[in-house]
Each structure stands twice: as structure tokens, then as C-alpha cells.
Amino acid sequence: MVNFIKPLRARFPGRGNHPADQSKESSLPGASWKEQVLSPDLETNLKQIKAILDKCSDVVYREFVFAQNEQIRLALIYTDGLADKTQVGDQITKALALEVPMAVPGQEISKNRALEFIKQRGLCINEIQQTSKLRDVIQAILSGDSVLLVDGHDIAIVNGTKGWASRAISEPEAEPTVRGARESFVETLRTNTALLRRRINSPNLKIEVFKLGEITNTDVAIAYIEGIVNEKLVAEVKSRLQRIKVDAILESGYIEELIEENPWSPFPTVNHTEKPDRAAAMLLEGRVAILVDGTPFVLTVPNLFVEYLHSPEDYYERFIFTTAVRILRFLSALVSLTLPALYIAVVSFHHELLPTTLLLSIAGQREAVPFPVFVEVLVMELTFETLREAGIRLPRPLGQAVSIVGALVIGEAAVRAGLVAAATVIVVAFTGIASFTFAYSASIAFRLLRFTIMFLSAALGLFGLISGLALIGIHLCSLRSFGVPYLSPVVPMTGIDLKDVVFRAPLWAMFTRPRLIARQNQKRQEQGLKPEPPETRPKG
Amino acid sequence: MKKIAVLLLILLLTGLTGGCWSRRELTEVAIVLGTGVDWMEDGRIRLTVQIARPGAFTAGSEAGARGREPASWVVSAEGRTIQEAERYLAMKVPREIYWGHCIILVLGEEMARKGTGMITNFFQRDRQPRENIWVMVTRGEAKDFLETYSSLEKTSAQAAGFLERMKTGYSVQLWKLAEMLASKGIQPAVTAVEVKEAGITPEPDREKKSPPQKQVGLAGVAVFKEDKLIGWLDPYETRGLLWLKGEAMKGVIIVPSPGEPDKAVSIRIRRGSTKILPEYDGEYLRFMVRIRVEGDMVEQQSREDLAKPEKIKTLESEMADELKKRATAALEKAQNEYGVDIFGFGDAFHRKYKKEWRDLKDRWDEEFSRAEVNIAVEAQIREIGLLTKRAGVPEE
Amino acid sequence: MLEQGKIDSRQAILLIISLVLPTAILTVPAITVKHAAQDAWISIIVATMAGLLIARLVTDLSLRFPGKTLFEYAEEILGRVPGKVVGFLYIWWFLHANALIMDEYASFLCSAHMPDTPVIVFFILGIAVAACAVRNGLEVLSRFNQLFLPLFLGLLLVVFILATKDMKVTRLLPVFDKGAIAILKGAATPASWLGEIVIFTMIIPFLNKPKEAYRVAALATLFTSFYLLVSILVAIMIFGPNVTGHWIFPTYNAVRVVSIANFLERMESIAVAVWMFGGFAKVGVFYYAAVLGSAQWLGLKDYRPLVAPVGVILVALAALCENIVELLDFLATAWPPYALSVFEVGMPLVLLIVALARGKGGEGT
């Protein structure tokens, strides 16, 4: 088996596990400027920058003179659309070209003092940095900051003027809840970190930023809560992120695929969320979040399998209700994995499993059906999957049409024509609905494996079905996510953490954090928080 | 990744090497609901099966439009063994015969007299027929029994099965029969059934009244010695058998009204229990049977007021007498006429006298026939319904 | 060390239950009832005593050599060559026992569920699933077991409770009907099954708390015996001793007759389905022991290369058995003396005595 895989690996070196083999140099042409520094001469600098940013029509160069001393020439460079134009206009250009003389009348500013003066008094910008590296200058321009070059100085002032048109914070589309925050992460990293910080007002919430992607230079942040998180985990996350050497990070999925432990598994071992409250809850349990600029999906690790069957709402609703709903979700997961296979096994192998009347009823429906049940179910499942896929890809106004056609064609016509038994439609529909009751990323894996099990079941009946489940079980048992067994706390069983698997303990009884994740700081809260009516409270 | 590769390999193996060994599509099987076995003159066995016609069992709009089509098909074949007969049957039945949902096994009277052991063996050994098939002996031929029609259920096999399940009479499943056949302390007793004329199905058109239908019904108990039928108990004696076996405490006891003996009072049995206590001193064998019964008064023909403690007492003792009479009737027949222990007295004896049993077990039926049986009944009336006396009777 | 993983006591208990129960519950009741009739439950109690003694023997022996398996300390105790011989015999026994398990497994599935499927399919698929678990090591094997065994145990208990409707306690009377000899005869088979705990010697070194080894073994034995006892009681109380002795798989038949309100019935397929997980686990444990043992016997650094060849040998061995009659006869008559006296009691006892005499190993606690 290993031999069969190896050549595959060799064929895709870029995706392999050996980034060290790759050359450190970027594959882009003209990368020699990267190590260069600015010169004191404005013209030279401008020329160089213009050369680098050649044919970048969105970069704006504004040259003007300092109001205080007209001998001093200034140049402002920013990217149109990324930098906030009012900020640039009011607080940089206007401030330096117009307002300074009024502020300090009659005082001559020498060329040498200009930079210091501009920094101290000239600019009305909140966030400024200075750099002498050409690389940083380019980086700043392209990321929305505006760069001010002062003639005679080999140092550039980087003004934080990021402000581009971005999507407003909206409701989460992929993880809707009835109760709980309606905010969702957006595509801007800074907004996302703000959303997190707003929920966790603690100096212990640490957010570290890296840049990943040789060409895209995407900002990637890891967030964790110091004191709760396992330090080794943070180090591991960092080291896994640092060994990513790819050209582009366009979505957090890129990172997910490059840092997981079991790249061949159908099951995701890195969770993602677009809900800041869920991400905050994950951080509070000792997980690490990875935020990527340009996507609202935030990754959280380590990831347990049960997370996919939980919803953030579980902690906002009453625990009894939550427990009931979770039981429903677990059963749905089982149904979505096995029901079609079970149906195939029963109808084509184990007729003894059904009560007589039910069996006769199914037999009656199937009398006219020309296909074996496996083919029937397979076709229906594929139809269902096609409909589902079409529903996602379709331009929204057309959605109605698809659902009408789907319901009519598949539900009615097929049964009426006698091509499909009504029982099969029920089974497939129920399976489909059941697969929507839990997290999408896990349900993809389940849907895929459902077909495998159906196949086994069609060949060997219940024995095939069980063998398939056993293989999946073994596989799940062997998975780990950042060192934590995927199926924990069920296996290996961590008694105390069973409080939050199927059963959700009341919040006043959740004294500890997950043991295998928050290793160092287990205690979540004081005991004895259970609310009591005043008369039973001990006096004093 | 290895696992995925392994999985793919297995899939390929199972899928491509033409797996599907034991596969039987539902459309390829003939689901047997009832089986009948008759003994033929030439020493062969006639196997009759009632096969469900699945089309009649769907409740769809189309099935409704087609009206009530016949729900079963009865077909027979002969052979030396059940399996041989089944093979001959397979020549007429275009599908694979499937026993997993067989509800009843009916033995023709002649067949039962020749021995049931050779029949039940197949049904226990084969994996498809279940242990809880209802076993019954019909007066006459099993084929006729299966060829009947049911007005309420779809098929007569289901009707017979439901009749048994209701436990209105004595009913026995295959595994209980197997136990009785295997034990020396009890002889088998099997439900007796017959084809009866039962009711009519009225049609909207008054003139077109359908003729009375031949349908299945219970008819007491068939008594066996070893595995051979030797006689019958009528429904009255069957009640006695049920009491002595301590099973299925259901039914009604009719006793004369204390004040007006020509009028009757019905008492419905609520619960009861039976205890058999053997006594043996090496020579003299005696059984004490203690029956306890509780019932509710549900019907009264007389005009008197029965809601009085002393009247209830009288009713209770009459009830006890009646029960005793029933039990004695069954016992008399078993001891004197057939000479077999169908009640399990032998097992009760075995439980108490395990050493003595070893000597007695091989001639148990004779010992049993000679044994003295004392029946003591303790009866109680609990409820009298919603009336104190017959409604509409003027005060005297 | 060949195996890196560690398992906790709870997993070990479940693993030992899997080691014995899945096939024991299938064939043992009929064999025992055939000998001891309604006193079969006493046989099980007797067998439990024997099982506890074997557990004590095995754990005492293992704890004298912490961190070592049977194959390693056999050489240490007896010297290189005799140790190798003992090791070889054990490898043979693991393989043979596993082949028998597969036979029981397949013939049960075959006769009860899928008569037209060639047994070899069950062998191959069963071994393939077990191989997957074994390749992943003891940790994954025991986690897999921990995931599914509770399902099996739970469902069995539920079915037994549902079956109470058809049970009659009087079917257990009279007690001591057949006498002590019959009871002892009946005890031999369950004892030899419980004695399979010898395989625990291959697992003890990987316990995270080896000190608890005896407690683990004893608890597991008691648990297993409890299920055996209950399944025998259920079968007898439903069918009576005569019929129970006639069935090949009485527990299976007991599940088949359960019917509650004409609705909760026909549960045998579900029971068999869940039972299959147990079967995989049982085959897996024996498989693992054989593979790990052979690797140690051959002095390999990794046992994984042996998984495939041992699997092939297992399938071949299992395919040797001709029919179920032969298998049942072997299990009822030849197996108890063969397994019990040689591998489960004989050799461990000899090893322990020699170890004591030569003063090998630390103090067993």
C-alpha cells in the first residue's frame, strides 16, 4: 500500500511533506530589490519605487512641498482603493502642504529636522511607523498604507491609512443559529481580531500576526489565551505555520490542508467557524484560532470529532433541551451515514429484519421497480446530491426553479412512473435531511463514506455494512488533531469531559475545561454556582 | 491513507468479483405467510404454502384504484420430505420461496397422527423460519385451511396468526412445541383449528348480499402422545387445560345467579395463577393443584341485587366450582381417555423429586394416569362494573 | 520497544472482555448445557473460579518482568533455546485459536445469515478489518474496542431484559440434577475460554498502570462470566435445558424469540450486527498477539511488516476447517484439554515455578 502511494507523492513535490527541499528564493522575476534600503535622495527613491511598481496603475504618487519650508520636497505614495482617501487628503496632504505654517508661524525648519518635525507635529495620522527598507515600503503601499518620503532622508514614514471598501459585518450564512450573536467574521483580518477582542477583554488574549504566501503576502494571525492554552500547542501551531511555503493563501482552507496531521483522511481535523462567539468559546477552552486575511472562516485547533455535532447555540439554550437536540443530532449523523446502506441490506438480504406488514408493503411498492434496490438507491442518492450541488452553485433567483423541478421530478414522477419505490424516496430524503443537522464539513465526509458503505452493503449485506463501519471506526480511532485523539473524550475516555459530548451539563456544573486540550489550566470556575432561591441560601 | 487504499481494494474485490452471494431482491422472493402439511395416501407429504401477493399490500392511490385484489396465492406440491416438496414447489413458483415471514404452520389431521417431529425439524433447523411460528392442527386437510379467505385481514394465515396471538384459546409457538417434544415430563398439546362459516361481508347493493364465507377459527386443542396426535379437547376442556397449565388467564366464567338459579351471571377473569404440588411416598402419587382466580362481574341476567357481600361470596364459590369442573373435565379426558400428561405434572414432579424421577420418567404417562389429583380453587370477585343491579328493574 | 502506545485500565478490561466474550457467548452455552443441563449456571461459576486463578497466575508471572511480554521473559527464564520453543508454541496457539475463532465467526454468520456466501469472504474481510486495527497498534485497537464493545454489551443486556417475558425460573429446577461430575464437565469449556486471558501477558507491559493488572484481569473475568452466566440462564429459562442443548447457538435463538407487543421483535439481525464488532475486536486481539509475538520471536524492530503475512496464514488456517460439526466437536472435546492444560495453565505455571526457582525477575506484586 505504501509503495502504491509513494510515486504519487513524488509527482506532486509542492504538496508533499518536504518543504525544506524547495529553494528559498521566490520564483518571481526581479526580486533583487528585496534587500535594498532607501537612499537620501527623493528622486532616486521615487524612480526605484516606480520601477518596482511599474504598470501598477492603481498606485498614486503625489509630490508636493512642505508648507513650512518650500525647499523640502515630499512625496506621498499610496494605492488607490486601499488607502482611505479622506484620511490621506485631510490628515497628510492638507496637513503638510497647507496647515503647518499656520500652526507654527515664522519658524524655519531645516531639511535635517524636517523628518522629526513632520512626525512630531506635521501629521495628524494616528498610526505611523518608519522604515528604511525598500521591501517594507513596497509592502506598506500594497497593503493600503501610505508612504511619505522626505527629500534628504533615507527613512520613509508609513502612515496607517488602511481603509478600503469591505463587506459590513453581517449575519453568519453558514452557521445560522436561533439564539446568540448575529455577527459573523468578515474578510478583513483587523475587523476579525477586533470581533474577538470585543468578546475577550483580557490582556491574556494574544494575537500574533505572520505573513504567509510568497506572492500574496497574506496576513495570518494566531490567537490564543495565555494561561489557558497549552504552550506546546502554540509552539506546534507556529512551527506548522512556518513550514508553509506556498505562493498563495487565498482562504483558510489552504492553511487547513497544509497543517493537518492526516492529509489522506476524509474527516477534517481542523475546525472552522465564522462565528466570533464560537471562536471565543474555543479559545476559552484552550484552543488556538488561526485567522486569515481575506476570509471570514477562522480555523480552530485542536479539533475533536464531537465539535461537528455541537452548535454554539447549545450553550445558550437550556441544557435539557440542548441534550435532547444533541441526541437527535447524533442519531441523524448515524442515519446520514448508514440509512441507505441499511435499507439496501434489509431489502436485498435480510428480509427477516422487518415486521411482516412493513416488509409486504415495501415489497408491494417495489413490485414494479425494474432495478435492484442498490441501483435504485444509488441513482436517487446521486440525484439528491446533484440537486444539492445545483442549489449551492445556482444564481439565487433560480433556486426556486430547481427545488420545484427536483421535488416534482424526483418525488412524484419517478414514483408514479414506477421507476422508484416510494420507500426509497423516503429513505433518501430522510438521509439527506439528516445530513444537514450537523456541521457541513463533517457531513461532507459522511456523505462520501455513505456511498462506500452502500457499496459494501450491496455486496455483503449487514456484514458489509458492519465491516465498513468498523473500518471507519478504526480510522477515526487512529486520527489525531494536534496531538489530541480525534474521538476523545469518548475514546480514550476522559470521564469528566463526557459532561459535554451528548449530554451538556448545566453551566454551573462545568467546573473544568477539556482535559486533553487545556492541559495546564483545568479549572474553569468555582464550584457551588448553582443558583438557589434566597430562602434556602445559607445565612451570613 | 493506507486505510483508504485498503478500503478501495476491498471495494474493488467485493464489487468486481461478483459479490452479492446471498442477495435476494424483494422482487425475487415469494414470501410465505402460511404453511400447511398433509399426509398423502402413498406415504408422501403434501406441502401447501400461502404466498403473499405484495401488490395487494400497498396502500397507494393506484392500489386503491385497482380495488381489492386477492392478497394471496395458495399452491401445493408433494414430496418425501419437506425439502423435496419445496423443490417441486419451486417448479411452479417463479420466485425463490422465502420462509422468514411464515406466520403459521398448519398440520393436517392425518399428518399429525403420523407424527409431527419430522415436520418441525425442518422449521427449526433452517435459518429462515422463525421459532415463533404458530403451530396448529386442523381437523381435515391443511390445504383446505390455507385456501380460506379472511374478511378482516388480508390473508387467512394472518387471520389465524392474530387469533393465536390474542390468546383467546390455547396457542403454541414452535419453540414451545419443541420444548414439549423434548421433555419427558410433558406431552405436547397443540392448538386445534378448523374452517368455519363466519359472517358475511355486506355490500352497498342490498340485493347482492355475498354468501357466508368460509373462514378460519379456533377449535380447542389437539392432544399428542410423543409426537403423534391421539385425540382432541373441545373448547370447554381447553379452558380447563389452560387453567391446569397456568397459562393465558383470560376468558369468562358463567355461573348461576344465587337467587334465581335459572338466570346466569358472567364473570370475566382478570388474573389467576396455578400451582402444582406433587406428593410422592415411593408408591402413592398425588398432586395438589391450587388455582387462584380473580374476576370482575360483567353481566347479569337475573333481577336480584347482587351488590351485597354475601351474594358476592356465593358467586365466588360458584365460580370456584365452575372452574374446578372445567379443570376436572380436561384432567379426566387426559388421564382416562388419552392417558397422557399434557399439563406438565411430570416436570413439576421432576423439580421436586429429582431422584425418584429417574425411575419414573420412562413410564410417566401410566403413573400420571393413576395419580390422584386434588384441585382446590380460590376465587375472588373484584369489580362489579358500573351498575349495582340490572338497570330498568323497578324497586320491589 | 515494539509497541509505543499505552492503554489505561478501563481499556484493558474491555479488551479482555472482547478477548473472550464474543465467541464464548455463541457456542459455550450449548456445550455447557449439554453436559450439565439446568445446572449449567453452576458450571459457569466453577469456571469463573478457574478463570480467576488463571488470571492470578498470568498476572503474577508478568509482573515479575515489568515491561516484558511472554515471549521476552520466556527466554529469560528458560534460556534461549527452550524459551524460543515455548515462544514458537505460543505463536502457533495464537494462530490456531484465531483460526478457530474465525471459523466460529464465519460459520455462525453463514448458517444464521448468509448461507450462499463462501466462508472465505468472511475470513478475508474479517482479517482485513482486524489487520487495519492491528497495523495501527494496540492503542487504536483498544480504542476501537472501547468505542464499540459497550454497544454490544448494552444491547445484549437490553435484549435479555426484554426476554424476561418468556422466562420461567422453574425451568432451572431441580438443582444438582445431573451431579457434580456433569457440572465439572460442563465447566471445562467455559474455563478454557476464560483462560484465553493468557493473551493478557502480551498487553500487561503496555498498561499505563501495570500495578492494576490483576484487578483488571479479575474484573474482566467477572464481567465476562457475568455475561456468560446471564446468557445461559436466559437460554435455559426460555427454552428449558433440553431444547437449549439442541440448538447450536442458543443465545441467538433466545434473541430471535423476543417479542414485545408485536413490535419489538426480529432483533437478531441488530444483535448480530453489533456482535460483529465484538468479533472483529476478538480476532484483532489474537491477531495482534500473534504478530507482536512473532516480531519479538524473530527479533524484529517493527511488527508492522508481519501484519500481512500473518493475515494470510490466518486465512489459510481458518479455511482448513471443513464444516461446523467438526468445529463444534473440536471445541467441545479437544479444545478444553488442549488449550487449558497446555497453554493456559501448564506453560505459565512451569514458567512461574522455574522463575521462582531460578530467582528470575523482580518481586511480583
Low-pLDDT sequence parts of chain A: 1-26
Strand content of chain A: 5-15%
Instruction: Report low-confidence residues of chain B grouped into runs of 5 or more.
Output: none
Spatial order of strands in the largest sheet of chain A = 1-2-4-5-3
Estimate the mean pLDDT confidence of chain A: 85
Oligomer: heterotrimer
Shape of chain A: elongated
Give the fraction of residues assigned to helices of chain A: 40-55%
How many β-strands of chain A, per DSSP?
12
Estimate the mean pLDDT confidence of chain B: 83
- The tally of beta strands of chain B, per DSSP, is 13
Q: Give the helix/strand class of chain A.
A: alpha+beta
Tell me the span between the first and last alpha carbons of chain B: 96 Å
For the record, the count of structural domains of chain B works out to 2
Major β-sheet profile of chain A:
5 strands, antiparallel
In whole angstroms, the N-to-C terminal distance of chain A is 71 Å
Note down, in words, how this protein is organized:
The complex is a heterotrimer of chains A (540), B (396) and C (365). In chain A, α10 (319-348) packs antiparallel against α14 (422-434), α10 (319-348) crosses α15 (440-478) and α12 (373-393) packs across α14. In chain A, β1 and β2 form a beta hairpin. Chain A has helices spanning 2-11, 42-52, 85-103, 111-122, 134-142, 189-199, 231-242, 252-259, 276-284, 319-348, 356-366, 373-393, 399-416, 422-434, 440-478, and strands at 59-65, 73-79, 128-131, 146-150, 156-159, 205-212, 218-225, 271-273, 288-292, 298-301, 480-481, 484-485. Helices cover 43% and strands 11% of the residues of chain A. The longest helix of chain A is centred in the C-terminal third of the chain and has 39 residues, at 440-478. Chain A has 15 helices and twelve strands. Chain B has 396 residues and is an alpha/beta fold. Chain B is built from 13 helices and 13 strands. Chain C has 365 residues and is mainly alpha-helical. Chain C is built from twelve helices and two strands, in the order αααααααααββααα. Chain C has helices at 9-36, 40-63, 70-78, 80-112, 119-135, 137-163, 180-194, 213-246, 250-257, 268-298, 304-320, 324-358; strands at residues 259-260, 264-265. The mean pLDDT of chain C is 87. Chains in contact: A-B, A-C, B-C.
